[in-house]
Amino acid sequence: MNLSKKVFNFPRQALHAIGLGLIHPSSNKFMKWDIPLPDDIKGLLEIIRAEPNNALELPKKNKDGFAGEIIYTKDIEDN
Q1: Is 27 part of any domain?
Q2: Tens of pLDDT along the chain (79 residues)?
């Protein structure tokens, strides 16, 4: 299976906030959470990084009409 198929067959959106912070509305204290990447997203990054040029070229439009772009993963750190 080629890289594009592996990425598009990922079972969910690969969105994740590594950190989240806010000022609590009642206490006015800053609160912060650090959340490591889930194992499935770590695995997806490994698949993408295994490509020789470390870039994934998306099709011009997928079934939902998404316009293509190039995703580079070399600067993404998996905590």
Answers
A1: no
A2: 577 777 778 888 888 888 899 999 999 999 999 988 899 988 888 887 777 665 555 555 556 655 544 455 555 555 5
Domain for residue 44, yes or no? yes
Round to whole Å and give the CA distance between 9 and 26: 43
- Residues spanned by the domain of 4: 1-9+32-79
**pTM assigned to the model:** 0.55
* Integer Cα distance of 15 and 29 in angstroms: 27
- In a domain, residue 52? The reply is yes
Contacts of 69 (CB under 8 A, 6+ apart): 58
What total of structural domains would you count in the chain?
A: 1
Q: Which two tokens stand for residue 13?
A: 């959106």
